[in-house]
Design goal:
The complex is a heterodimer.
Chain A: H1 35-44, H2 47-60, H3 73-90, H4 94-104, H5 106-116, H6 119-128, E1 136-141, H7 148-152, H8 158-161, E2 165-170, H9 174-182, E3 188-192, H10 195-201, E4 210-215, E5 217-219, E6 221-226, E7 242-245, H11 251-262, E8 272-275, H12 278-287, E9 292-296, H13 299-305, E10 309-314, E11 325-330, H14 331-336, H15 338-356, H16 361-368, H17 378-386, E12 388-390, E13 396-398, E14 403-405, H18 411-423, H19 433-440, H20 443-452, E15 465-467, E16 470-472, H21 477-482
Parallel strand pairs in A: 1-2, 1-3, 7-8, 7-9
Antiparallel strand pairs in A: 3-11, 4-11, 5-14, 6-9, 6-10, 12-13, 15-16
Helix pairs in contact in A: 3-6, 4-5, 12-13, 16-17, 18-19
Chain B: H1 14-36, H2 48-56, E1 60-62, E2 68-70, H3 81-93, H4 106-137, H5 139-152, H6 161-168, H7 171-196, H8 200-208, H9 213-251, H10 256-265, H11 269-300
Antiparallel strand pairs in B: 1-2
Helix pairs in contact in B: 3-11, 4-5, 4-7, 4-9, 4-10, 5-7, 6-7, 7-9, 9-10, 9-11, 10-11
The chains are: A alpha/beta, B mainly alpha.
Keywords (chain B): Cell membrane, Membrane, Transmembrane, Transmembrane helix, Transport
GO biological process, one term (chain B): transmembrane transport
Family (chain B): Belongs to the binding-protein-dependent transport system permease family.
């Protein structure tokens, strides 16, 4: 928001997003001391948010009094369009914009820009299309903690705040959510981060182009083993085990396969991996039908709660900050309802940022526990979300980022997932990593919205990841793929 | 013991069996409750960490007085009858609540299931009787179509579900169509069989009286075949009732099948038991209602 208050034609103004304590790293602006109070303010009067940023802006721009006047919403919109156009002309280089403005004078540049680009028309268009085409929405979800932002956005009013009347609809399995999304039974859906890629590629389902505007959660999974395997230390000890994962095209499957393969086991030859809906995993573990699983929470914690198993390894120990679940929408819906889509996108980014603030986690656990949402004991959800939990081995773990929330759908994450799809022959067709990643994962747009809303703009969309100590360079997917001794290639 | 004493009483009084039923029920419930009861929780000698672990695992909860007690909601095996009873009372005390999209009261759920079932069954019955009449009246068509019927009849109605979902794309309609598929074949087969085996004299008489086709159908053919048709409808009814619950589970459509599924998702066994009882009760009531109707139909002939 703050960036909109700066005049893009002023050479002394920076358009870069300012990183400071409150606005950094996907966290919201509020002081964590009074979460519920501030939450109410967020929902019912957006001002809380804006005013704080506003104050901080004022402190930063003491000698330029451009931000002090409260802009009306029309002025703000017009400023937003100007800023977007100027940013587009000068690219990401704020330095060159300032140099040009300083040398030529703001008025001249503004005239030139008006000559080049119909600014007034663009402004009129921006205001015209601000209307939400379809406020009543239905969003499919699977009852797991990964879906926290999508779910809590309903009871905690994030959809409402952005002008939507969205209702979340619970599905009992990933295939169901996929079918609902494909057949338009729901307008948008909670999916596993590889699903929009696999559906777009037509792997395991009809080929329908999907977008993944935002990641829901990072981390938040675990390998849970049955109590009888308390002696297991390494992947080698798991030879012959029968595992479950929630879906074929899931981070769970790829992380488990990665972990086993790094430990020298071939996931298709040395162990069995089957697809089982998460709630059934706990019962299977208890009955001794399976030895373990890599599953979404709360079903790892639930296994401990049911005295059926113990948490062997948190998924963050395999890949710190890995994506897990995601928010997905068909490209068709996004194109036919652009404003609705944007409002939805904003609600999700907003809710995700709220969930990432650890001081809100207990409140969130209570909001998502009822039968309409997760239908789970509050104590189980609290342990997952706060990271202070019973390990099942008689101890208490304290891992605050056991699950975290970050909307940024890095293109590099998509490329990694695609390498694993190829590695295990989950996709037969040939594709270009970059093209698919950039078609499906909306990293650029997510950055843009985040910065517009005052959250961190990562400015880039590719980054290197480290998975079990091994670096993944998204620029060299084929070399990376070739480096694995265990594969199905 | 003298084996001669092992005789059935000659004239049991009607109440003897009833009393015995009640005694058996009380004994079963009592034994069940005893097997699942636990002594009061004793926190002495436990460290704070141990207590916290127990609380994390939901084994104990803090009561209003600030003391730890066993969490009666959490049971290690099948919950006791008191807990199930509590669950039943709780569910029945607000049967028509609606807390959002996914949490509707039991009254609503029963209504959804019964209406889904009724639409599918009535549609299927109309179609099946029409097809059955056409097939049954014409021996050539009967023999031509019979092999298809024989193959289609044993297919589980749920086996059609993926195909239906793929073609109609709407879970709501798919659930109705699964019921439709479940109730189609027995009625077609029985109707066709009933019509083809009508006493030929009836037909000759009606022809002699120069009845029109419609008059003949409604005054002679259908009444004569009614017992067979009703028998077909009964079989269809049973198989449709069996199909509707898993269809709701698989499709995530709100209903009593869905209730079973979400209680299982929550690993709430008391809830699962409640849902099973509801399924049984609804099935029993509908079956009783259908018996009444079918008896009325048979008498009308």
């Amino acid at each position: 928001m703050s960036v909109f208050r700066r005049d893009p034609f002023d050479p002394d103004q920076s358009l870069e997003h300012q990183h400071h304590a409150g606005c950094g790293h996907g966290h919201s602006h509020r002081e964590p001391a009074s979460p519920s109070q501030c939450h109410r303010e967020r929902c019912h009067q957006e001002r809380c948010h804006e005013q704080e940023c506003h104050e901080q802006d004022e402190q930063r721009n003491t000698d330029h009094d451009v931000t002090q006047a409260t802009l009306s919403s029309e002025d703000a919109m017009s400023r937003a369009v100007e800023t977007a156009v100027v940013k587009a002309i000068f690219g990401q280089s704020d330095v060159s914009r300032r140099k040009v403005l300083a040398a030529a004078g703001a008025g001249v540049v503004a005239e030139i820009v008006r000559g080049m680009f119909p600014l007034d028309t663009a402004k009129a268009m921006a205001m015209e299309i601000g209307k939400i085409e379809k406020p009543d929405l239905s969003i499919g979800f699977i009852p797991i903690t990964c879906a926290t932002p999508i779910i809590m956005a309903e009871p905690m009013g994030f959809y409402e705040k952005h002008g939507l009347n969205a209702k979340v609809r619970r599905a009992s399995g990933w295939a169901m959510v996929r079918d609902w999304a494909i057949t338009k039974e729901v307008d948008a859906a909670h999916m596993l981060s590889p699903m929009p890629l696999s559906i777009t590629l037509g792997a395991g389902s009809p080929k329908v182009p999907f977008y993944m505007p935002a990641v829901e959660n990072i981390n938040g999974q675990a390998i849970t083993l049955a109590n009888k395997h308390k002696g297991v230390r390494t992947a080698q000890d798991m030879k012959g085990f029968r595992f479950c994962v929630p879906f074929e095209y899931s981070m769970h499957n790829y992380l488990l396969r990665y972990y086993l393969a790094e430990g020298g086991l071939h996931p298709d030859k040395d162990v069995q991996i089957r697809v089982v809906p998460p709630p059934e995993m706990v019962a299977n573990l208890k009955a001794g039908n399976v030895d373990g699983y890599l599953a979404p929470d709360p079903f790892n914690q639930r296994a401990v709660y049911e005295n059926a198993g113990f948490i062997f390894k948190l998924s963050k120990e395999i890949w710190e900050g890995h994506p897990c679940c995601a928010f997905a929408i068909s490209q068709e819906f996004a194109h036919t309802h652009p404003n609705t889509f944007l409002a939805l996108f904003r609600s999700i980014v907003d809710a995700t940022a709220y969930a990432s603030d650890k001081s809100n986690r207990k409140e969130i656990a209570k909001a998502i526990a009822p039968r309409n949402y997760l239908n789970q004991p509050v104590t189980v959800l609290e342990q997952v979300l706060t990271g202070r939990y019973a390990t099942g081995l008689g101890g208490i773990g304290n891992v605050p980022d056991r699950i975290d929330f970050d909307p940024m759908p890095w293109h590099s994450m998509a490329v990694w997932i695609l390498t694993q799809m190829k590695r295990w022959k989950h996709v037969d067709t040939d594709f270009d990593y970059k093209t698919v990643a950039e078609e499906v994962y909306m990293a650029t747009k997510c950055n843009e919205l985040a910065s517009e809303m005052g959250y961190e703009d990562r400015t880039k969309t590719y980054t290197k990841h480290v998975i079990m100590g091994k670096e993944f360079d998204p620029a060299k997917p084929d070399e990376y793929l070739a480096s694995f001794p265990i594969n199905n290639l | 013991m003298n084996p001669k004493t092992w005789r059935l009483p000659r004239d049991p009084k009607w109440w003897q069996a009833k009393i015995l039923s009640v005694v058996i029920l009380v004994a079963l419930l009592g034994g069940w409750q005893y097997a699942t009861s636990r002594p009061a929780f004793d926190p002495t000698g436990k460290t704070e960490d141990e207590l916290m672990l127990l609380e994390f695992n939901g084994d104990i909860v803090m009561n209003d007085a600030g003391d730890y007690v066993f969490n009666e909601e959490k049971t290690s095996g099948v919950p006791g009858p008191l807990l199930v009873g509590k669950k039943i009372v709780e569910e029945l005390s607000h049967p028509f609540h609606k807390n959002g999209t996914n949490d509707h009261g039991i009254g609503h759920l029963i209504f959804y299931t019964v209406s889904r079932f009724s639409v599918g069954f009535v549609l299927a019955s109309v179609v099946a009787i029409l097809v059955g009449v056409v097939v049954g009246l014409n021996p050539v068509i009967f023999h031509a179509v019979n092999p298809f019927l024989q193959v289609l009849k044993p297919i589980s109605p749920l086996a059609w579900m993926p195909l239906l979902l793929y073609t109609v794309q709407k879970p709501t309609i798919t659930a109705i169509l699964v019921v439709f598929m479940a109730s189609l074949w027995p009625t077609i087969a029985n109707t066709a069989f009933g019509l083809s085996s009508i006493d030929k004299d009836y037909l000759r008489v009606s022809r002699m009286l120069e009845f029109g086709w419609f008059r003949r159908l409604f005054t002679v053919i259908l009444p004569a075949a009614a017992p067979a048709i009703v028998a077909g409808l009964r079989i269809s009814f049973g198989s449709a009732l069996v199909a509707v619950v898993p269809a709701e589970m698989l499709l995530g459509e709100l209903g009593v099948g869905y209730l079973t599924w979400i209680e299982w998702n929550n690993l709430d066994i008391a809830g699962v038991l409640f849902a099973i009882l509801v399924v049984g009760f609804v099935g029993f009531l509908m079956d009783a209602l259908f018996s009444k109707l079918s008896k009325a139909a048979s008498y009308a002939t």
